[in-house]
Amino acid sequence: MVRSVRHQMLAQPTADEAARQGFIVAFKQALNRGLRSSQQPLFDQVVAPRYHAEHGSIPQTREQIRSAMQADPAYRSWSSLSRAAQEQMWVAIGDSVFRDRDRLARTAAQLANAPDRKGSLHLDPNFTPPRGVTAVDIHLQTGGYAMDLGDGDCSAGALYEMGGNLYAFGQGLSRNDSKAAHVQRFINEKFPELNPRQILDMGCSAGSASVPYALEFPDAEVHAIDVGAGMLRYAHARAEALGAAVHFHQMDVGHTTFDDESFDLIVSHNLMHEISGVTRRNMLRESRRLLRPGGVCVHQDVPLRFAGLSEFKKFELSWDTLNNNEPFWEVYANGDLQPELLAAGFDPACIHVGSLPAREGSLPWFVACAWRP
Ligand SMILES: C[S@@+](CC[C@H](N)C(=O)[O-])C[C@H]1O[C@@H](n2cnc3c(N)ncnc32)[C@H](O)[C@@H]1O
Predict the structure, then answer these.
(1) Minimal CA–CA distance to 315: which of 40, 73, 54?
(2) Which of 31, 55, 253, 347 has a 20 to 30 Å separation from 89 between CA atoms?
(3) Domains of the chain: which residue ranges?
(4) pTM of the full predicted structure?
(5) Which of 225, 271, 320 to mutate to test the pocket of ligand 1 (most atoms within 8 A of CB)?
(6) Which residues are within 8 A (CB) of 291 and not within 5 positions of it... i.e. 6 or more apart?
(7) Is any atom of ligand 1 closer than 6 Å to the C-beta of 338?
């Protein structure tokens, strides 16, 4: 299944809105592909020599590099334009989503109540989304992941799906890049005998990775969890619109209410870089608790590892922490998943941590995988 799949729950941009969104994608691509690559030469040829002339040495630590780069007008311009482009992207998406909000809520209610519905939605009125999600609007998404405007509101999910597509195209990722398809290929190659009956997708957002599991394993029962009601209403309606049976629940990935050994396959997609170290370790422990003997968990994420990188590279990659509301970006980049899977109770012989080869214009996605014999 491709990233930009069409369905009834997508917000419908007007021609003007689509034109503005298209401009922002092109602008982000120019900033990411073109100008970002000029930062190392700018540092080597201009910023470091200037710093040396003033201080008698070149900047060594990330903080020295940051303060030297931030003093440079070319870097400052790139950085402020990048932040502004991200803000503008969400404003432009919000124009479509909030204008289309009532239709989305009505369509979601129809899909959720249709007599031939396949999945289900379980919201918990007593659930309080964790502070890691509510304290900041992660990657500047308007209202944040947990936004719920009441009355069947689906805006958080609609924003997330539209934003995810534009964000990815702005980074230069292909329309054909489906993270779930990459993980499914990995599972088929590494565990050809696995025939899951119960599957769990953790941190599902709009469910764009959950649906491919329901379609790939039609005999399995697929469950998906996230924290926000607005996100989950959208995810459920979207899955119904695509004819996929997925059961969505409002739960914390670190403390679910499923029974021990409920699942044969547990996955997460791009979740780890958006949760704290404590939540990640709880999530791995929960994966171990919920897996049946013979079961497999695969936690996929961006290939962002700080080990072995130069201080300059770390400075470049930490732009998102400071400017794109990604509080856990570096927590994830500095994490070591092998010992964490061991600490979660997995056998050392049943752990695979590494990258998936880049295919079809994707990133070389990172996976932390473990299984029960
Ligand atoms: C980057 S998105 C995941 C993308 C999604 N898996 C996909 O493939 O499209 C991260 C999601 O994790 C959710 N999340 C963050 N902390 C969580 C927690 N403690 N429990 C459950 N979900 C959480 C957020 O609400 C958000 O929807």
Answers:
(1) 40
(2) 253
(3) 174-371
(4) 0.95
(5) 271
(6) 261, 263, 264, 266, 297, 371, 372
(7) no
What pLDDT sits at residue 151? 87
Q: Residue 117's Cα: distance from chain center in Å?
A: 27
Confidence at residue 2, expressed as pLDDT on a 0 to 100 scale? 47
User: What is the whole-number distance in angstroms between the Cα of residue 273 and the centre of ligand 1?
Assistant: 10
Residue 150 identity (one-letter amino acid): G
In the predicted structure, residue 128 carries a pLDDT above the cut 60: yes
With b for 16 or more beta-carbon neighbours within 10 A and e for fewer, the 303-329 pattern comes to ebbeeeeeebebbbbbbbeeeebbbbb
Closest CA to 201 of 166, 235, 226, 219: 226
Q: Rounded to the nearest whole angstrom, what is the distance from the C-alpha of residue 271 to the centroid of ligand 1?
A: 5
Structure tokens at 336: 């070591």
> Domain spanning 174-371: which CATH class is it, in words?
alpha beta
